[in-house]
Design goal:
Elements (H helix, E strand, L loop, with lengths): L2 E3 L4 H7 L21 E8 L6 H22 L2 E2 L6 H7 L2 E8 L9 H8 L2 E5 L22 H12 L3 E3 L5 H10 L23 H9 L4 E3 L3 H4 L8 H13 L6 E3 L16 H12 L4 H20 L5
Parallel strand pairs: 1-2, 2-4, 3-4, 4-5, 5-6, 7-8
Length: 312
C-alpha cells in the first residue's frame, strides 16, 4: 500500500519533546511494508499563543531537527525545486516539510522566500485563532484576510509554496478563493455535511477547491469524524470519503491523517491502521483504482502539476 499523507504533527512532537522521529510513541511509524512507498508531509505546528519571535524560532529549530532526522533515518527530504513525483518513484520513504500557522513568518514577508529555499512546500495559513494573515475557524467574529495576508498569498504562489486553508475561517477561505491565482488545498479537513463542525468544509467549499484543481485530505481526528466524537470509528472516516466522492471528488480526495496531533477514534492507532482502512474500502466495493487515487495518486498528481506550473 503506497501512501501520500498530507499532514501530521509528528515533527512538532519530536521538536518539543526532544524525541527522534522514529520514537515508539509516534503514531507515524517509520517501518514500511516491503514494496510500499510513502511521502509524509511533516508539519511544524505553531500554537496560537506563541509570540511571533518564538514562532519563527521554533520553525528554525524544526528545520534543523527535520534535516538531521531525515539524514539519520534515510528519509528523502524533498526540497524546493525537486520533483515530488520523481522522488516518490526513486525513493521508498520521502518527506515534505510544511508549516501549520503562518505566524512562523514573524510578520516578515521576506521569510516566505527564505522558507521556500529551506524546503517548505505547504503553509497552513492559520490555526484556530487569528494571526497576521487572517482568522482561524475558532474565531467567532472573523474579519477575513488582512492586507499582509494578501501579500502572503501572492508571495507563496511566487515561491512555489502551496496555500493550505485547513483551519481557516469561512471568511478567510472565501477571500483566498477570490485572490488565489494557483490551486490551493485543505491538507486535513472533513465534510461538514457529515459532521457539523466548523473546522470541516461545506459542500460549497469542497467544490471550490475541486473546481480549482486543489486537493483535500481527510482528517482522522475523532471530533471531525462524528457529531458524537466518543463513538467515532473507521466507518465514519469512510462516510466522509463517500461524501466527497459524491460531490465528484474522485481526483480531489486524499489522506491527511493529522497523526500525532489529534485524538484518534478507538479503532485507529496510527500508521498500522491505514492498511486496514485500505482493505475496508476494497470490501466496500471501491474500485482499487479509486483507492489508489485517494491514498497517493491524487496528491502526487497535484504536486507534479503545481511544481511545473501547469494549467490543471
Amino acid at each position: 500500500m503506497n501512501l501520500f499523507d498530507l499532514h501530521c504533527d509528528t515533527l512538532y512532537k519530536s521538536v518539543t519533546q526532544n524525541l527522534p522521529l522514529d520514537d515508539t510513541s509516534m503514531q507515524v511509524s517509520q517501518t514500511l511494508n516491503k514494496d510500499d512507498k510513502r511521502i509524509q508531509c511533516y508539519a511544524i505546528w505553531i500554537p496560537d499563543d506563541y509570540s511571533p519571535g518564538k514562532a519563527e524560532q521554533i520553525f528554525y529549530s524544526a528545520h534543523k531537527k527535520f534535516t538531521s532526522e531525515c539524514k539519520r533515518l534515510g528519509i528523502k527530504f524533498i526540497e524546493q525545486g525537486e520533483s515530488v513525483y520523481n522522488c516518490f518513484k526513486n525513493n521508498v520513504n520521502s518527506a515534505l516539510f510544511t508549516i501549520e500557522n503562518s505566524s512562523a513568518l514573524n510578520g516578515k514577508i521576506k521569510n516566505i522566500e527564505r522558507f521556500s529555499k529551506l524546503g517548505v512546500r505547504i503553509i497552513t495559513l492559520t490555526w484556530n485563532d487569528s494571526n497576521i494573515v487572517g482568522d482561524g475557524a475558532g474565531v467567532l467574529h472573523p474579519q477575513g484576510i488582512t492586507e499582509f495576508g494578501q501579500k502572503v498569498i501572492s508571495e507563496m504562489e511566487n515561491n512555489n509554496i502551496v496555500v493550505d486553508v485547513s483551519h481557516a475561517s469561512e471568511m478567510l477561505f472565501y477571500d483566498v478563493a477570490k485572490i488565489a491565482t494557483r490551486p490551493f488545498i485543505a491538507t486535513h479537513s472533513n465534510s461538514r455535511s457529515v459532521t457539523n463542525h466548523r473546522r470541516n468544509l461545506t459542500d460549497e467549499q469542497f467544490n471550490i477547491i475541486k473546481n480549482n484543481k486543489g486537493i483535500v485530505g481527510v482528517n482522522f481526528h475523532r471530533d471531525f469524524l462524528n457529531n458524537f466524537s466518543d463513538t467515532a470509528n473507521k466507518y465514519d472516516l469512510i462516510k466522509h470519503i463517500d461524501k466527497f466522492l459524491s460531490l465528484g471528488g474522485e481526483n480531489t480526495v486524499c489522506i491527511g491523517t493529522d497523526f500525532d496531533g489529534c485524538n484518534l477514534p478507538v479503532d485507529i492507532t496510527g500508521s498500522e491502521s491505514l492498511t486496514e482502512i485500505y482493505e475496508m474500502l476494497l470490501k466496500d466495493n471501491y474500485k482499487e483504482s479509486v483507492i489508489r487515487k485517494i491514498f497517493y495518486e491524487n496528491a502526487l498528481n497535484f504536486f507534479e502539476n503545481f511544481d511545473n506550473k501547469r494549467i490543471m
